[in-house]
Amino acid sequence: MSIKNLSLLLLLCSTVSFGQLEASKWYFGNGAGLDFSEGCPMPFDGSVINTIESSGAICSSFGALLFYSDGLTVYTADNEVMENGTGLLGELSSTNGTLIIPEPGSLTRYYIFTADAVQHYQSSAQGNGINYSVVDMNAAGGNGAVVEKNINILNQGSEKLTAVRNANGYWVLTQYEDSFYAYPVTAAGVGTPVITTIGPNISDFRNIRGAIKFSPDGSKVAICHSYFEPALAGELYLYDFNMSTGVLSNEQLLGDDVVYYGASFSPNSQVLYASGKVPIVGGQDTGNSRVFQYNLQVADIPGSRIQLADYLSSPFINLAGLLQLSIDGKLYHSFGGATLSVITLPNRLGVDCNFEFRAVGLGNNTSSLGLPITNEDNYRNIIEYENLCSGDETLFSLNTQDAITSVVWDFGDPDSGVSNQSVQLAPSHIFSGVGTYTVTAQVTYLSGLVEVYSVLVKNVLAPIIIPAFLYQCDVDGNLDGISQFNLYDALDVLFIEDGTLVGGVNLQFYETEIDALLDQNQIINPESYTNLNNGQTVYASVQSSLDCRRATEIILSVDLGQPFEDIELLICPSVEGENSSVVQVENIIDALQDIYPDVLIRLYESIEFAGLQTNEIQGSILFDFSQPTSLYYRLGEPDDCIGVGLASITLGEPLDLENQELVICFTEEGTVLEGPEGFMEYEWSTGETTKDLLITEAGVYTLDVTLFAGCSGSLYYEVVAGLELQVEVEVEDFLQSNTIIVDAYLAEGTIYYSIDGGATFGTSNVFEDLSPGIYNIAVRDEVGCNYITREVEVRGAPKFFTPNSDGYNDTWHVINAQNYPGLTVEVFDRFGKQMTSLTSNSPGWDGTHNGRKLATNTYWYKITYEERTTYGFFTLITRGDL
Questions:
Q1: Which of 53, 208, 412, 803 could form a disulfide with 438 if both were Cys (CB 3.0 to 4.6 A apart)?
Q2: For 832-847, how does the pLDDT look when each residue is reduced to its tens digit (9 = 90+)?
Q3: Beta strands in 492-595 (DSSP E)
Q4: Alpha-carbon distance 411 to 430, whole Å?
Q5: Is the pLDDT of residue 707 over 60?
Q6: How far apart are CA 249 and CA 182, in angstroms?
Q7: Nearest one of 787, 767, 675, 781 to 720, comparing CA atoms
């Protein structure tokens, strides 16, 4: 087995804050998306967003995406522009440009807050300020629509927005110049802001960049000021926040030595992280990007700062990228490119927080500087754990500085019986099986406060620790026991559990056991590793998740046997072109199987590929007639090597096989499918090996045929039973121009119609301009399984009459009226005046009214017969008009 890409993001499957799935999907950057709903940041394609910084998304409580936005446009879950969703007053390049929160008290309405941006001031010298719009998901047929747009709440503002849930709804916080504006958002709407004048006065619009962030418990606020004028610089401040009053206090300057940009707290609100770039060359440019950590539980918070990362970033951007918590309890850092960095244990201090550089892939998409922001309360948590290997003890603890008097744990694992609960402060639990479990801790603090925390814990299957043996052919012509190995082939041996390959593992290789344990001196070319000696042992370090790791040894053995002799094969192509042909690999293997029966055979383009067991040829091959063609074959299972040889291919004539689609009228005796003539072997999908096959029901039947070894093919017979035809006939008569409509239904196929008893057929079911008389209707399907006849009568009325007493057409009446008992006929002039009334037994109308002969004119009639009424007209023609 060859593994070309083992995604690092699979290491990060861990925990998801229970019940906070409204923040489970991220849309950001250049079409980038991450889905956290299963506990792992899984990348996805399809997002139409293309933004530098500003983005936001909101999901239902079950994790289904509702909509997302870049601050200018709102997009539905189907990646379409939402109704009335354009023209928001945000900006793609605004630090915290888009903030989406639910409307308190509603299950369908949501607020989109948009922040100001430097670009607004640059283009018009006037900012757009802070605005909000409202989305109602009940609108537009459930796709949602923006029902209120660009409601201004602050005339001018900064690029800073953050929110946190409180007892009545939310606090939405922004900052402008020397003041903070805390807006209460309740079921009554967006209220008047609580204004706290505190901190530096940021009067130059070019310095309004930088993040603002609530702590998840709402007790703290961190703010970054990214200064571009008069020189590149920055400041990071920390404030206390009163969740009851909305007032900020206790200002602390934490740093002013870098261009601070991103900030985010740990889930337990006790640790702060910040990102920034180092100003250089007199403050006219910046150097490396850095990530810092602050311990908020010590007296000297600025002095607690440690540096977690220092790395090169784009020299064209003077900002370091945002930091953002996710519902998996991890902290992500965006700085451009196809990956994000991550702090996997942000509640922990120092290097124990585990900063991983470029650890999470974004698939086919890239990030820029921004990440989505939302209600920070979504990320509040103090539960930590270690070891998620199935069958091992998982250790749980609570990371908080507050004194705890008691805790009640529920591991969400009822199959574990009494072990499902614990009252220990730091318990352990062995989960009953692989899966995702909701772990809950009800914590009682010394203060009397009771809090409930929950996480989704993903217990994973541990890699099986057994020694692996890789066998290789010595194919380089020098029989010294040295060859090349694809170490990833060990996956087929190491990770088979009940016959199933365990997916999502991260595998690394080392030449010594010490290197594997210390994760050092990793083998950098595992797909083409040259062994040091025959029988060498290398070591594999295996992780199926962040907290599930195993190590084992792989023994490399080289077979010194001689290569096989060259073989010439005559092979039939499946498709032949003018200068090339397509050959099925199975035909080549069939020919080799006659020479080497009962052994696994695989094909490769080169002897190196055959030795490494990489790039195996499968499916079909395109052969060029202008060049000699040869392939290398390898005999033996993946963990064995019987030998490698060369096969030269000569092409014969391609098989001429044509699939059949048949509609059959089945009888009790069944019907026979006829196979093509002239083949050596036949095998039907039913197991019969005869040329022809008797069938009694519809279905798809496959026939494999063999002309000679290495020249075989398949064709299928798709057999459909003839379907029942249903027919109804409708006659529109008593008219001068009569019509027959044949309504026929057949589940599939063409229907043919006739009104002359089957003498002629057509595909139209409407027959018009018919004279009165008897018609023989015939209806059939295209295969002849159905043939239905009907005899219908078309009744009529004369188009004119000539009451001149010459014995011809002297009166007007329905043709053969006496045959229709109960018939009534009323005749009217063109003004609607009744001229006469007739029954089936009446003589015809003689063209008089009140004893007076009428002149040439057109008259209307109304025929009532068998609950049907028909209207028409005819002409009375007098002698002088003949």
A1: 412
A2: 899 999 998 999 999 9
A3: 496-497, 500-501, 506-510, 529-530, 537-545, 548-559, 567-571, 575-576, 580-584
A4: 10
A5: yes
A6: 13
A7: 781
